Amino acid sequence: EPTETNASFMARILGPSANKAGLQSTDKAMITRVIYEASKGTPFFENERRKDQALCGRIERLLEKRKQLEGRDLTHIRKLVDMDWRQLEAERDLSQTIVHVDMDAFYAAVEELDNPELKTKPMAVGVGAMDDGRKYGIRSAMPGYIAKKLCPELIILPLNGAKYKHGARAVVACALTCPSTPAYLNITNYMKETGMTAEQVTQQIRQEIRMLTNAYQTSGQSKHQICSDINKPNGQYMLANDRDTIMAFVRDMPIRRLNGIGRVTEQLLNALGVHTGNDMHEQRVILKLLLSPKSFEFISRAALGLGRTDLSIQYDRKSISVERTFRNMSDVQQQMDMLDKIATKLAANLERKEIKGATITLKLKRSDFTVLSRSRSLAQCIFTADDLYFYGKQLLVEEQPIDIRLMGLRLSSLQDMRSK
DNA sequence: GCGGATCAC
DNA sequence: AATGGTGATCCGC
């Protein structure tokens, strides 16, 4: 019975989009039940329960810490925080216009274009990477067999990496007209040069994506244009570059929608009575005392509606990794063979990217879903499959005996292949 | 530097 | 019977 568990655990099982979907409460109860019944007793489920208990412990300790602060005079802290926030306010930059391009259910959209009949049917792509079928309670990262229980007529298509790359390239090519990451485009200069409004520019971005994908169509690489329904929900929102508008926007924003606040942090903050941007304001003194400096800085910026306005900061890779999930494996020889495969794959990726690295990390997931990592920093950079295998093996031997369902190798402390 | 956790996509 | 892969960052030690 679900009653044996608490609310935060059910939220964990129900998944990240449970509250975003706008479901009826009766549907929600039914969906919860189906997911619970299908998961109950599995190692995955038990691991989720462990993780939830750890979270409850963290919350308890946090509340205990808060209790210690009761009755104290915190006016000094309040003054510090307010000074801090005035400083942040002074640095607010309203001069930039930035477009966030988000391809919702991208894989599914590509598949629908290849097969329009799918548009009227419940459909998902991949098992691990499933696009949301919200009204059925199906969510991202839900295993296929549970999704089928929620919606027996669901069509699950295998992942087709090559096919989606064409679509992705079109978006990237489009983004290259502005100097920034694919997801966020700074269109300030473009607007100045062309005299266009933000709405007109986003309209043009949509148009360009359509044209580029038509080019793929004529070259025979894709039968249909991609993202033709990008306007369908037309999820376009213009936030004016105006302090009052931004503050009002942030004020009622549920914290979970902030980039960087996930399931765990949401629960932690909710326990402290923080659900919206406005709550961050009201609780700022206690948050300053309870959270780490970095976390509080994040909260401060979010509460004031301060995003990043400089998108020119260049991206440099810090690590590169390969990991694989497989049937539970306890045989050492089999594990060594798997390590060999992963080392070979990683070496190939390193060669393609022309990088090498000096820190190797072995990641293992036990058959009970607990995860561990073991790493070693070397005096020199390595990059060959032989070296990756050699040092990976040393780390793997140390953990024997062990029954695992996942193995990964990561290389960090990276350098360009040519540098010494 | 290491290991565990969290997060995004 | 059955719950992904890649990369980043933060925290506490």
From TrEMBL:
**Per the record's keyword annotation, is Nucleotidyltransferase included, yes or no?**
yes
- Give me the reactions it catalyses: DNA(n) + a 2'-deoxyribonucleoside 5'-triphosphate = DNA(n+1) + diphosphate
Question: Gene3D superfamilies per the record?
Answer: 1.10.150.810, 3.30.70.270, 3.40.1170.60, DNA polymerase, Y-family, little finger domain
Secretion signal span: none
Q: Which enzyme class, named as a word?
A: transferase
Key words, A-Z: DNA damage, DNA repair, DNA replication, DNA-directed DNA polymerase, Magnesium, Metal-binding, Nucleotidyltransferase, Transferase
- List the EC numbers from the record: 2.7.7.7
| UniProt xrefs under InterPro entries | DNA/RNA_pol_sf, DNA_pol_Y-fam_lit_finger_sf, DNA_pol_Y-fam_little_finger, DNA_polymerase-Y, DNApol_IV, PolY_HhH_motif, Rev_trsase/Diguanyl_cyclase, UmuC
PANTHER family membership: DNA POLYMERASE KAPPA, DNA REPAIR POLYMERASE UMUC / TRANSFERASE FAMILY MEMBER
Q: What is this protein called?
A: DNA polymerase kappa
